[in-house]
Amino acid sequence: MDLLSPIMNTFCKSERLCNKNLFEELVHSDFSFVKFPFRVLVKKSSLQGEYPARMGISVSKKKFKRAVKRNRLKRLTREAYRMHKSELYKDSQGYETLDILFIYIDNTVLEYSKIEKAIQSAIQKIIIHFYRVPE
């Protein structure tokens, strides 16, 4: 955890889901759920990464024609994830790398507080599913 503490408040390239093959695997993953306004896909990665999780965001061009709105939603989502990823990293403790994809499913641009709340509850659900041992 000492290695990760300086980067807790950043979101670097190594934490992004950039590999096309990993992205394709993730789209066909078994575990997904909806935390409005997102559909969240999560999978244990087939390729170990530097960090406990890699994250990607998808905003439909069909729903948001203007790139300005799509980029704003991606920025807000990235910021919310960056602020709350420490919870996910804290519970990972040397497990495999997770690949996470947030797909924005609403037709309107929501305010940051609603996006942040959805990301936070999605992270909690991921922690419970992947890291907590059922008793």
Account of the protein in words:
The radius of gyration is 14 Å and the shape is globular. By secondary structure, the chain is of the alpha+beta class. Helix 2 (67-92) packs parallel to helix 3. The two termini are 26 Å apart. It has three helices and four strands, in the order H-E-E-E-H-E-H. It has a single domain (5-130), classed as Ribosomal Protein S5, domain 2 (2-Layer Sandwich). The model has no long low-confidence stretch (mean pLDDT 87). The protein has a four-stranded mixed β-sheet, sandwiched between helices.
Topology (elements, then pairings):
Blueprint: H1 20-27, E1 31-35, E2 38-44, E3 53-59, H2 67-92, E4 98-104, H3 112-130
Helix pairs in contact: 2-3
Helical run tally: 3
| Ends distance | 26 Å
Q: β content, as a range?
A: 15-25%
Unreliable runs: none
The amount of helix comes to 25-40%
How do the strands line up in the largest sheet? 1-2-4-3
CATH topology: Ribosomal Protein S5, domain 2
Reading the helices and strands in chain order gives HEEEHEH
Q: Mean of the pLDDT scores? A: 87
Overall structural class, as computed from helix and strand content, comes to alpha+beta
- CATH architecture descriptor: 2-Layer Sandwich
Q: What is the CATH C level class, in words?
A: Alpha Beta
Subunit structure: Consists of a catalytic RNA component (M1 or rnpB) and a protein subunit.
Pfam family, one: Ribonuclease_P
Family: Belongs to the RnpA family.
Enzyme class: hydrolase
